[in-house]
Amino acid sequence: MNEPVTLDPAAIERLRKLGGDKFASDMIGLFFSYGGKKVSEAKQAQQAGDLAGVANAAHPMKSSAGNVGAARVQALAAQLEQAAKSGNSDAIAGLVGEFESAFAETRTLLETELARLKPAAA
């Protein structure tokens, strides 16, 4: 299996270079709140059979996840959006579950990164 790396630490370094530790911390915080909302929206839309809603929830997660290096979340968001746009409802339930799990796993990894940034950002 060639699954994408869950977290690309180079993305956090890019954020740090762009705006410092506080900026990187803020971007991770935004990903947590915004991403959690979008994952929930995708799940609710999937349960309602709303394919457009699934695609609309997944679409912005591609760039949001990419900003913080959440490679697996980014890849799954792209797959989920494509499946929803092509009407592949059979694949969507499994993808939403993977998307939700990948977000939770990535959140844990990013919390570790955030802890490293906090002392410098304070």
Question: Could you explain how this protein is built, in words?
Answer:
The protein is mainly α and 122 residues long. It is built from four helices and no strands. The longest helix is centred in the N-terminal third of the chain and has 40 residues. It is elongated and about 45 Å long. It starts with 8 loop residues before the first helix and ends with a helix. The model has no long low-confidence stretch (mean pLDDT 92).
Strand proportion, as a percent range, falls in: under 5%
User: How would you describe the shape?
Assistant: elongated
Question: Total strand count, please?
Answer: 0
Straight-line distance between termini? 41 Å
Question: Quick recap of the structure?
Answer:
The chain is mainly alpha-helical. It has helices at residues 9-48, 51-68, 71-85, 89-121.
What are the main properties of this structure?
122 residues; mainly alpha; 4 helices; 87% helix; 0% strand
Note the topology.
Layout: H1 9-48, H2 51-68, H3 71-85, H4 89-121
Helix pairs in contact: 1-2, 1-4, 2-3, 3-4
